[in-house]
């Protein structure tokens, strides 16, 4: 069983990985107090289809290297919103227009942001 502290360390590592790969506007939301079965959202914006796919691939590689669960993820290209479901962590990779449209940060505005 993975602990909350271990999950937080993986969230930080994924955030740093995405930052190193030039993901834009990285936001982490603590979802533990919600009814959803996830502890953290990591929300980022990619600057093109290729960039979004690369960000996804880097996160998938990290999860596999750390032997973390991968429940599901979007495998194609050309999406405005891609998700990676790692059980306790859900990564959202958006195009700029989709991020504005779906506004997950606004939807979950009452939940704590992690710096």
UniProtKB/TrEMBL annotation:
<keyword id="KW-0810">Translation regulation</keyword>
<dbReference type="GO" id="GO:0043023">
    <property type="term" value="F:ribosomal large subunit binding"/>
</dbReference>
<dbReference type="GO" id="GO:0005737">
    <property type="term" value="C:cytoplasm"/>
</dbReference>
<dbReference type="GO" id="GO:0017148">
    <property type="term" value="P:negative regulation of translation"/>
</dbReference>
<dbReference type="Pfam" id="PF02410">
    <property type="entry name" value="RsfS"/>
</dbReference>
<keyword id="KW-0963">Cytoplasm</keyword>
<dbReference type="GO" id="GO:0090071">
    <property type="term" value="P:negative regulation of ribosome biogenesis"/>
</dbReference>
<keyword id="KW-0678">Repressor</keyword>
<comment type="function">
    <text>Functions as a ribosomal silencing factor. Interacts with ribosomal protein uL14 (rplN), blocking formation of intersubunit bridge B8. Prevents association of the 30S and 50S ribosomal subunits and the formation of functional ribosomes, thus repressing translation.</text>
</comment>
<protein>
    <recommendedName>
        <fullName>Ribosomal silencing factor RsfS</fullName>
    </recommendedName>
</protein>
<dbReference type="InterPro" id="IPR043519">
    <property type="entry name" value="NT_sf"/>
</dbReference>
<comment type="similarity">
    <text>Belongs to the Iojap/RsfS family.</text>
</comment>
<comment type="subunit">
    <text>Interacts with ribosomal protein uL14 (rplN).</text>
</comment>
<dbReference type="InterPro" id="IPR004394">
    <property type="entry name" value="Iojap/RsfS/C7orf30"/>
</dbReference>
<dbReference type="GO" id="GO:0042256">
    <property type="term" value="P:cytosolic ribosome assembly"/>
</dbReference>
